[in-house]
Design a protein that fits this description.
Blueprint lengths: L9 H15 L3 E8 L4 E7 L5 H16 L1 H14 L10 E5 L3 E7 L6 E8 L4 H15 L2
Antiparallel strand pairs: 1-2, 1-5, 3-4, 4-5
Helix pairs in contact: 1-4, 2-3
Amino acid sequence: MATKRMTPGFSDQVMGLVKSLRTDAPDCVASGVVDMSTGMLLSYETVDNHPPEVLDLLAGATLDLFQGRTVVMIEDVFKERRGIQSDNHFFQEILVNSDNLTHLFVRMTEQQDVVAVVVCRKAVNVGMLFAQVRRVVREYRL
């Protein structure tokens, strides 16, 4: 499992990533960064007020989506069958549609335990959403 380099500018990079996601993702109403290794929501921006308990649960929900027990079991079976001996994870991006919103979760390339989260209005152009979020995530390379 990869460990994060806690450089002096790490929190500035995280806040910059959140701000860029919030401004560059189409129809974005919220963005954030989750550290799955600590279970913490590192930073977020939103246009609405959300109950603190919902924000607290976001990190846990993100962990369940990407590295829940069953997901890890599936990854392990495929790694074994393919002869892969790596700590990298298969699930890199997850799109979730709720009644009114579209949620995109993107695992950072270099630090697999860090996930960028973008929440947009349901009418968002999903292709543009993926393109913009991928571009921003590449720029920040956390």
